[in-house]
Amino acid sequence: MKISNTYNYIGLTLIAFSIISCGESNSEKELSETQNITNLEVTTEAGFTEAMLTANQFEALQMQIDTLTQRNMSGFVEANGQLEVPPQNEATITTMTGANVVGIEVIEGDQIKKNQVVAYLSHPSIIQIQSDYLNAYSNSQFLNKEYQRQKKLYEAGVASGMNFQKAKADYTSSTAMVNGLEAQLRQYNINVSGVRNGTIYQRVALRSPIAGFVQKVEVRIGQFVEPQTDLMEIVDTHHVHLDLMVFEKDVDKIKKGQSVRFALQSRPDKELTAEIYSVGKTFEQTPKAVHVHAEIENKDGDLIPGMYIQGRIEVANAKTSAMPEGAIAIDGGKSYVFEAVPEGDDWSFRPIEILVGEKDAGWVAVQFMKVPDANTKFAQNNAYYLMAEMKKGDAEHSH
After folding, report:
1. pTM for the full model?
2. Mapping DSSP to helix (H, G, I), strand (E, B) and coil, where does residue 275 land?
3. Domain spanning 47-71+320-398 has what CATH number?
4. Among 28, 147, 226, 326, which residue's Cβ finds the most Cβ atoms within 10 Å?
């Protein structure tokens, strides 16, 4: 009996010790997990899950910051074409008579005003027309006096009606000749009053009929130019617009008021926008397409008529949140964008996980787990650099 009681006592003691040991082990494990959670919270609160850029780094990287963009990511018609100006915004300067170029006042690319002198011409025929006008004007003055004299005599009954009618006819004819020569002088931009006072101009000025830029100069000093020869071309680029070609299969989708996103072939990375204001009603045969004209909304830099453009017409109005491809970084199979928060002169960039959708012309449709505030700003470029900076900060903290 004593031996049995002794074994029972030992067994109870072992069980109690085991329970105490397990309790201590579980407590230590819970304490360890609690410490790990606390460490994670400290890391997040300390800001090591963000990328910090100084003002100098921000400028050197040419960081672009903007709010979330709403963009049509589907429903497009491809349409290429070129920049054009309306016919009333182009001018060709010519001469009405054969003459020699004795002065050129502009060069290609010069901006000029309406009625500004662009060249001077000289020729004996120009001097001759001034002499003819002066003679015709003087003769008309004499015939006017004779007409007035005959009129008084006729009304007084002391002159024949024949003499009066002849004086009237001669004066009327001379007046017509004077008016005709005067009109020619004005077309030459010659001062009519100066010629009447006896001044004969050796050269005449060619003036631009519109304001704009000199596109071409096709003459040189001393050159003889025939009548109607094209001397210069002037273009007013203020009303430059898109002239797109839309193929037959897509014509029914195109309407006035639709938006166009396009890029110049010389600047493929810079996107511009336009709005359609006119859709052609006849087909060009080569290729079979109609002309579509669109007014440019955000004119930027020198837009020169004739520049080739690649455009996309928005034929659907389903807009979605979108970010430039350079704003998205992929890490561990997940996609992130970076919220931009100013920290004095420096910037903090905090990663936000997103879901990505369709891609279009360098943009990607994005969906947020939690819709950001409309005023929240994001980095629009250098996302992979920001991701690397953030990881570098995390690595330094772990040491």
Report:
1. 0.56
2. strand
3. 2.40.420.20
4. 147
